[in-house]
Structures are given as structure tokens and as C-alpha cells.
């Protein structure tokens, strides 16, 4: 206290006038110092939460929201600076003036935080209410006169999204009528068979001939009819609309379309694969479900504005929610509920039955059900159908990990009779790909996960409810107040009570038909009755992961047909019963993050897939023997958590046990140092045979979400992944592994100045590369001394938080290098000045996506001085260009004669010095949108007003 008083006295003595002023105006700030600090932290947390919420859909929203996000980032950094200043200043409590000023600064900043939060909320609400002009855009933009190269347009999307409606609108659209001399609309009937064959092709020709009012002899062959159609259309601009296309269709064979260069074709299909000959389109357009404001507006327009009644509105919104944005469903339900008028009781009854999917008793739903079920019935075989139905066991909106899904499919015998896991996974991915193609499953934003549209999920549950052999019992969290009845348990073949919060389970049951039991993520479930499993002798899949159980009951050995057992994240689980050796068919076991040890499961010697943590090893016993006894293992995943004392002593024995596994086809493991990896490579029985898929890390770390997203992929399940983490030297011991690597992550490495330091000749098989937090890297590839093409197969390059990076490529670029590169992302590289060095841009013939953000020194994206001569056809495949927070950016490319033949989307945010765009009256013919700030757009300089007028309709501006 004396020190504080003395310090204060010294300050006061220095300047009496300041003290007087301080006492009058700043005493309040000094008094409110802690309060202002706490309030600032609280409000900043609210702002951060909103920013994260909006950031999830950062590039799916209007640019004004992305601008708000960018400003929020800046404010948050400023708040962090103030927090640091507060923690430093409070140690010097006698500095009254400094503390008062800091308190005032925090109060002002808190007001800015609150204001920005309000602005964000307002923009979010406003954006939610705006209707994107999706239909108009599809109707007109793709068919404009200038799009000479776009002749075949494919429209796709899940059933019920309105694809046929779009086609019908094109058929009846006044502007389209003005653009073409003739519009021909044909719905391809399934009764016509395969239109790639003779009979099917003739059916399409008959439909076209009728539209043209032409008579052709029934005995005329396809070629003769095609000549007649082609002659009739010669010199005419014709639009051909084909709905419900299921098979490859050769329009030149059917109507000689190549002889009519002014004709265009629009096809509708449920297929989304651009390489699929069904579409074979120059341009693909996906019809998405309606957004929340769109679906409400459509429903309200069809029913009437009386649904704004405060008693009806909540019920009406509940109905709309059950439509999942599908116009077909909205239309049918609007007709049904309009009949209920203003009767609140009828609305409530209808909504309750809709939620229960009691379609038989709900008028107007039969047509929807038939349309949906057609998607299911059109699947090629029973294998695909049963795999699709299984996905309905997972909760609404849940992300289903592909590995787990395929393991459950295998356990159920859905994907063939393959006994080994590698073949089974290949079969599973084939089925998965088919389900993704027809949108019955969708890719999730999360790595290696898929999800099921809620409407299809309800359809699948209804189909299973009608089955006599495979009844599902699925209870979502909000519907499960009590445990299912005894009858429900005993009649079901598959039960899913995920996240149910059940604290108790029935003591005894007769579940002789139960094949699948999913009870995960229920921490309230702390015990399982002793005889719970006694009657479940045919059970194949048991998922208890994330529950609060401490032990497994003595009835577990009765599960003699169990093939899959998930116990991961049962953090209190430490006991299993005797007799588990009776689980002779168990193939998959996951005990990560449990208190079990390998000795307790040592009798399960028939396991083929085992996932565990390093903490599951018993350090008092031979770790080598603990692993090697599972000699049938095909897949082994050992997770490393935080290091604990004694673990380093068991690593060598663990590795010595792994190398003896002669059937191993997949290994996920973290080697703390290169020496351990070398031991594995030298002694592993399967290394060098080309049969092992690996996911290795050298140097332990916690995998970030973004890293996994980049390095792991559903599309490449067999990729070998190598992460080099926290290294400080280039060890030649990794080169043999590097030569087999397909996805490379270089993370927080401090011992390299270039990626090529590891030996560029060892990277010929790399497809994906992530470089993050490497403080000494100045260039990615040092081309000096390289005499042949390198990184020919690299497809994705992501570089983030590399503070000293100056350029991607140093020195000469050999022809063929980077020839398959499709995606480049550059983020937080403050010293990067050049993206495409001399000779590099000519090799990027496949580059489709370029994103550059928070690179402070970038002044030009394509520097003509470094790329002379710069051909007009440079970057011929580039589709998206995203530029974010580049304060010194002045130009994308000074040369405005580049053709940009594939560019579709440009997004520019916080690039305030960018004064021009590299477009003219004729280039970038496929450009569909330019997103940016209104003030930035208005400040752009144009060589010709015609260019601005051409681009203005494409703009999405704040």
C-alpha cells in the first residue's frame, strides 16, 4: 500500500494541473476500470459468437455479411490488444492517468463492439428476408446470345427442388421466346427404355416430330428421321428442353444438332457427376432447396396472408419447416392446409400428423410420397436400397462418418461377401458414390462425413416401418421422454436412440430379432442391467460410444454374432466381463479414450479393425505382445493424446508389435521422431508390398479441423497421409515414406526454408499439400538445379500462416510441373509479394480455384513483368477467384486482353486499393457473379462505360 501511495504521489507531483483535471473528468473511468474490462470481454464474446455463426456460411451469404465478418475480425483483434494492455497496466496501479485512459478506451471499444453486433444482427435478418433470383438466372443468363460455347446445359438436384418447374418456365418464358425461333419440350418417359438404344432414341424423335408437325414413316430408321428433323431446323435458333433424362442421349444421332450451331439444349436429371454422359454438359446448374424466407413466402402466397394470425403463424411455420425447402412438398401441403382455413385446432392436428409422417391420413401427401419413393425404387439393386435405409438410423442433420457407415454396412452383409476389409470398403465406396450421385446422401462440410436430407430420412423410416423383416425403432431426442415400450424393443430389428439422455434401460427383454443397437452420446447412461444383452444373440452392431458407463454387463458374451462394438469416449469405462472370448465374430472394436487396457481384450484375437489410444496399453506388461497377438488385424488406429510419464518407454515395443502384423492394410499412428518411423519401415512385414495405406504423423500434435478437411477426403479414401509437425531438421529418414505419400502436411516446422528441402524427387505421388505455421520457409519450391517436371500430380496446395514466405516458386519452372494443380489457397502470408513467378503461370493449365487472403504485400495477382510473354489463354480453367483483405492490391492483371474462358465467380472483399478489373466487352464469357462492396465498385475506373454496363448485372454488392 505504501508503494502504491508513493507511486501515486510521484505522479501527482509531476503535474498538479493534470491531477486537477484527472480528479474532475477521469475519476469515473478509474473507478469503472474493472467493470469496463469485464463488460468488454462479455460483449466481445457475443460478437465472436455471432461472427462464428455467420462465418459457417461465409461464402454462401451476401458480401455485406462477409464485410461485416471481416470488420468483426479486426475489432476482435483490437479487443485482444486491449486485454493484453489491461493485464500489463494493472500491475502498475499507481499509474492513474494510464489506467483511466485505458478504462475510457475500453468503454469506447465496448460501444463499438455493441454497435457492430447490432449491425450484424440487422444485416443477418435482412439477408434472411431477401429472395435470390435463382429461377430468373437459370432462365435467361445461361441462354444469352454471347454464350456461343455453352450449348448443352444440365440442370440437376434432388427430387422436389423444382427442376421441372424451371424447365416449364423456360418453355413459357417471354424472353426465351424472343431469343429462339422455336422451343421444343420433351419429357423422356421411362417406358421408352434406354434412349441411347434404337427404340428409346426413336421415341424421342417421335416426340420432336410431333412438336414440328412432321409426318415420318413408322419404318424410317433413326438416321433418316434425324435428317428430316435437322433439315426442318436448319437456319433456325432452337431451344430443346429435355426433362427426366436418365440415360446417355446422343442428340446428334437423334436430330443432327451439330448441323444447327445456333441451337441449345437444356437437360434435367438427378445426376450431378459432370463426367457422366447422362449430362455431358458444358454448364451445370444445381437447383437447391428454397431458403427459409423463400419457403415461407411461397407457402404464405399459396395459402393466404391470414396465416399471419398469431394463433396460426407458429403452426404454419412448423408446417413449412417440415417441407425442407422443397417446392413440390410446399405446393402440396399448401393445398392441404388451405382447406383448414382459420381453424387453429385443425392446423395443430395436421402439423402433429405431419411430424409423425402419418401420410396415409394426411390429404395431398400421396403424390409427394410416390415421387420420393421413386428415387428409392430406382436404385439399381437391393444392396443400394438397404444401405440407403440404414442411413436413417442417424439423427436429423447429423454428420455420419463414412468409415463407421461402411463398417456397419459390412457387418449387416449389405456390401457383398468380401471377407477382408479393403475389398469391403471398396464395395462400400462404390455404393456410397451411387447414393451421392442421386442425392439420397449428401457430402458434409466435415471431412469424410455424409448426411441425409431430413425428408429422405423420413421416407426411409416410413419404408422400413412397412417392412416385415427390417423394422426400425428411431427416437429423436425431442421425442424421447421415456424409454421405448417393451413391445417396441422386442419388435424392432434396428434401434437408434442416439443422444437420448436415457438414464436407465430395461432389466430384461426378448430382442431375438435385434440386429443393430445405437445408444451413443448419452452421458446420463451410467450402467447397463446385468441381463440386458441376454436375448440379443443375433445383434451385429452395438454403439455405446460417449456414454457414462463404467463397466459392461456380464451378459455381453451372449452377443455371439456381434461384429462391431464402439466404446470410444466412454471415459469412465474400465471393466469388461469375463467370457468376452465368446465374441468370436467381433471384427471392429473402438476403445479410444476409455480406461480399458489391451490385456482386458487380449482374447479377442479375431479382430480385424482396432482403434485405441496409447493410454490403453498396460505399461507394466509387454507392449509388443499386447499388439502382436491380434495377428488377424487389417486396420489399426492408435491415437496419441497428451504425453504422460512412461509412455516414451513403450513406444519401441509397440512399434515392434505392429511390424509383426502380416495382414495389416491400414495404419494410423504418430511417431514422435523420425528414428521410430525408420524402425517401422525397416522391420514392417507389409511395408514395400504396396498393400498398406497409412496416416502417419511425425511429432505429436492435436489435429485441427481445417487440416483434416484438406488432407482427408471421401473422394480419395486410399490416400497415404503424412504430417511433419514441430520439426527442426530435414531428416533423410522420411524420404522412403515421403515417396509413397499422397497428402502431405508440413505444420509448424522450423528447420526448412523450402518444401523442396525434403527432396522434390520424393514427392511424385503427392496430390494434396498443406503448409502451415512454418516460420523459416521463404519459398515453396526452389527450382534451381531441377531439370525435369516436378509435382506433376499435385492437385491442391494450401499455404497458411507462413510469415516469411516471399514466393511460391524460385528459379526456372520445368515444363509439366504443377500441370494438375486445381486449387491454390494462400492465407496470412504477410511477406508474400509474388504469386506466379516467371514461367509458372504457363504450367497452371488445370487451375480452377484461387483464393488469396490476408497477404499484406500483394500488389498484383498476375504480374505481367514476371510472366512475359503473357498469353491471352493464361489460366484457361480458372473458375473462382476469391480475394480477401489485401490492403495493397492494386491490380488483378494489368493486361485486360486475357480471355478468362472458364471464370464464373469473383469475390473481392477489403481490397480498397483495387481500382480496376481485368475484363473487357468480350472476355470472361462464363462470368456469373462479382461480389464486393458497393463503395469499392463505385470507385472502380473503367476504360469504357460499356464494360461497366456489361458487368453490372452480375454484381452482388453491399
Automatic annotation (TrEMBL):
Residues 499-669 form the Disease resistance R13L4/SHOC-2-like LRR domain. GO terms for biological process: defense response. Belongs to the disease resistance NB-LRR family. InterPro entries: Apaf_helical, At4g27190-like_LRR, LRR_dom_sf, LRR_R13L4/SHOC2-like, NB-ARC, P-loop_NTPase, Plant_NBS-LRR, WH-like_DNA-bd_sf. GO terms for molecular function: ADP binding; ATP binding. Pfam families: LRR_14, LRR_RPS2, NB-ARC, WHD_DRP. The keyword Heme does not apply. It comes from Vitis rotundifolia (Muscadine grape). Residues 136-304 form the NB-ARC domain. Residues 393-460 form the Disease resistance protein winged helix domain. Residues 795-920 form the Disease resistance protein At4g27190-like leucine-rich repeats domain. This is Disease resistance protein. Keywords: ATP-binding, Coiled coil, Leucine-rich repeat, Nucleotide-binding, Plant defense, Repeat. SUPFAM superfamilies: L domain-like, P-loop containing nucleoside triphosphate hydrolases. Residues 30-57 form a coiled coil.
Amino acid at each position: 500500500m505504501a508503494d502504491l501511495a508513493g507511486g501515486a504521489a510521484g505522479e501527482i507531483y509531476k503535474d498538479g494541473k493534470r491531477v486537477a483535471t484527472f480528479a474532475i473528468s477521469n475519476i469515473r473511468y478509474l473507478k469503472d476500470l474493472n467493470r469496463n474490462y469485464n463488460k468488454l470481454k462479455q460483449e466481445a464474446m457475443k460478437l465472436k459468437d455471432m461472427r462464428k455463426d455467420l462465418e459457417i456460411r461465409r461464402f454462401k451469404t451476401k458480401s455485406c455479411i462477409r464485410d461485416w465478418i471481416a470488420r468483426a475480425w479486426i475489432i476482435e483483434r483490437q479487443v485482444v490488444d486491449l486485454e493484453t494492455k489491461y493485464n500489463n497496466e494493472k500491475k502498475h496501479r499507481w499509474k492513474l492517468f494510464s489506467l483511466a485512459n485505458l478504462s475510457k478506451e475500453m468503454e469506447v471499444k465496448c460501444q463499438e463492439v455493441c454497435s457492430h453486433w447490432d449491425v450484424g444482427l440487422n444485416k443477418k435478418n435482412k439477408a434472411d428476408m431477401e429472395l435470390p433470383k435463382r429461377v430468373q438466372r437459370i432462365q435467361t443468363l445461361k441462354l444469352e446470345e454471347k454464350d456461343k460455347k455453352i450449348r448443352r446445359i444440365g440442370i440437376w438436384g434432388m427430387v422436389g427442388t423444382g427442376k421441372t418447374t424451371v424447365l416449364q418456365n423456360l418453355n413459357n418464358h417471354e424472353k426465351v421466346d424472343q431469343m429462339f425461333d422455336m422451343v421444343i419440350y420433351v419429357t423422356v418417359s421411362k417406358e421408352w427404355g434406354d434412349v441411347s438404344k434404337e427404340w428409346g432414341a426413336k421415341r424421342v424423335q417421335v416426340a420432336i416430330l410431333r412438336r414440328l408437325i412432321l409426318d415420318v414413316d413408322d419404318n424410317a430408321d433413326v438416321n433418316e428421321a434425324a435428317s428430316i428433323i435437322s433439315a426442318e431446323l436448319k437456319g433456325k435458333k432452337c431451344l430443346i428442353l429435355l426433362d427426366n433424362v436418365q440415360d446417355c442421349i446422343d442428340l446428334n444421332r437423334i436430330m443432327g444438332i451439330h448441323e444447327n450451331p445456333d441451337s441449345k439444349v437444356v437437360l434435367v436429371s438427378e445426376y450431378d457427376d459432370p463426367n457422366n454422359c447422362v449430362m455431358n454438359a458444358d454448364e451445370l446448374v444445381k437447383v437447391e432447396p428454397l431458403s427459409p424466407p423463400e419457403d415461407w413466402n411461397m407457402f404464405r402466397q399459396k395459402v393466404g396472408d391470414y396465416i399471419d394470425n398469431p394463433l396460426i403463424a407458429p403452426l404454419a411455420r412448423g408446417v413449412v419447416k417440415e417441407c425442407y425447402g422443397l417446392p413440390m412438398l410446399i405446393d402440396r401441403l399448401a393445398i392441404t392446409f388451405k382447406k383448414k382455413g382459420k381453424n387453429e385446432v385443425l392446423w395443430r392436428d395436421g402439423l402433429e400428423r405431419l411430424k409423425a409422417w402419418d401420410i396415409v391420413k394426411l390429404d395431398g401427401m400421396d403424390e409427394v410420397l410416390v415421387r420420393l419413393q421413386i428415387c428409392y425404387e430406382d436404385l439399381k439393386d437391393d444392396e443400394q436400397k438397404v444401405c440407403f435405409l440404414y442411413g436413417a438410423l442417424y439423427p436429423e442433420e447429423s454428420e455420419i462418418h463414412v468409415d463407421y457407415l461402411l463398417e456397419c454396412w459390412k457387418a449387416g452383409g449389405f456390401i457383398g461377401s468380401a471377407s477382408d476389409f479393403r475389398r469391403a470398403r471398396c464395395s462400400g465406396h462404390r455404393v456410397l458414390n451411387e447414393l451421392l450421385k442421386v442425392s439420397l446422401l449428401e457430402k458434409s462440410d466435415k471431412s469424410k462425413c455424409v448426411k441425409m436430407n431430413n425428408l429422405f430420412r423420413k421416407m426411409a423410416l416410413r419404408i422400413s416401418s412397412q417392412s416385415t423383416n427390417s423394422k426400425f425403432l428411431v427416437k429423436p431426442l425431442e421425442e424421447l421422454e421415456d424409454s421405448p415400450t417393451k413391445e417396441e424393443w422386442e419388435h424392432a430389428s434396428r434401434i437408434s436412440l442416439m443422444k437420448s439422455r436415457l438414464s436407465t434401460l430395461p432389466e430384461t427383454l426378448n430382442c431375438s430379432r435385434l440386429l443393430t443397437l445405437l445408444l451413443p452420446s448419452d452421458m446420463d447412461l451410467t450402467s447397463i442391467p446385468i441381463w440386458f444383452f441376454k436375448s440379443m444373440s443375433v445383434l451385429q452392431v452395438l454403439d455405446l460410444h460417449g456414454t457414462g458407463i463404467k463397466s459392461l454387463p456380464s451378459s455381453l458374451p451372449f452377443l455371439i454374432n456381434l461384429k462391431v462394438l464402439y466404446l470410444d469416449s466412454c471415459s469412465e469405462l474400465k471393466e469388461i466381463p469375463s467370457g468376452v472370448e465368446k465374441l468370436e465374430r467381433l471384427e471392429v472394436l473402438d476403445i479410444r479414450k476409455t480406461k480399458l487396457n489391451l490385456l482386458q481384450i487380449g482374447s479377442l484375437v479375431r479382430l480385424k479393425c482396432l482403434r485405441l489410444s496409447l493410454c490403453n496399453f498396460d505399461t507394466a506388461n509387454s507392449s509388443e505382445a499386447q499388439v502382436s497377438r491380434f495377428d488377424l488385424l487389417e486396420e489399426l488406429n492408435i491415437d496419441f493424446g497428451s504425453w504422460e510419464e512412461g509412455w516414451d518407454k513403450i513406444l519401441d515395443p509397440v512399434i515392434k508389435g505392429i511390424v509383426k502384423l502380416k495382414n495389416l492394410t491400414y495404419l494410423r499412428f504418430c511417431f514422435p521422431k523420425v528414428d521410430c518411423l525408420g524402425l517401422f519401415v525397416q522391420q514392417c512385414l507389409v511395408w514395400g508390398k504396396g498393400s498398406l495405406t497409412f496416416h502417419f504423423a511425425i511429432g505429436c500434435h492435436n489435429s485441427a479441423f481445417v487440416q483434416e478437411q484438406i488432407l482427408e477426403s471421401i473422394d480419395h479414401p486410399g490416400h497415404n497421409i503424412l504430417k511433419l509437425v514441430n520439426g527442426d531438421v530435414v531428416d533423410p529418414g522420411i524420404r522412403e515414406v515421403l515417396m509413397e505419400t499422397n497428402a502431405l502436411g508440413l505444420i509448424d516446422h522450423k528447420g526448412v526454408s523450402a518444401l523442396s528441402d525434403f527432396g522434390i524427387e520424393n514427392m511424385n505421388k503427392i496430390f494434396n499439400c498443406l503448409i502451415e505455421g512454418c516460420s523459416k520457409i521463404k519459398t515453396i519450391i526452389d527450382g534451381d538445379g531441377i531439370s525435369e517436371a516436378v509435382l506433376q500430380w499435385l492437385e491442391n496446395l494450401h499455404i497458411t500462416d507462413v510469415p516469411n514466405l516471399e514466393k511460391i516458386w524460385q528459379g526456372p519452372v520445368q515444363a509439366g510441373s504443377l500441370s494438375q494443380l486445381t486449387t491454390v489457397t494462400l492465407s496470412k502470408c504477410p511477406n508474400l509479394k509474388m504469386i506466379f513467378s516467371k514461367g509458372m503461370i504457363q504450367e497452371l493449365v488445370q487451375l480452377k480455384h484461387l483464393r488469396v487472403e490476408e497477404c499484406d504485400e500483394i500488389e498484383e495477382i498476375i504480374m505481367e513483368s514476371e510472366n512475359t510473354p503473357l498469353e491471352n489463354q493464361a489460366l484457361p480453367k480458372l473458375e473462382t477467384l476469391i480475394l480477401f483483405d489485401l490492403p495493397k492490391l492494386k491490380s488483378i492483371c494489368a493486361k485486360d486482353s486475357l480471355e478468362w474462358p472458364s471464370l464464373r465467380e469473383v469475390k473481392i472483399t477489403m481490397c480498397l486499393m483495387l481500382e480496376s478489373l481485368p475484363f473487357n466487352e468480350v472476355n470472361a464469357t462464363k462470368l456469373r457473379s462479382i461480389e464486393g462492396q458497393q463503395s469499392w465498385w463505385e470507385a472502380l475506373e473503367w476504360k469504357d462505360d460499356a464494360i461497366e454496363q456489361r458487368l453490372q448485372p452480375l454484381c452482388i454488392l453491399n
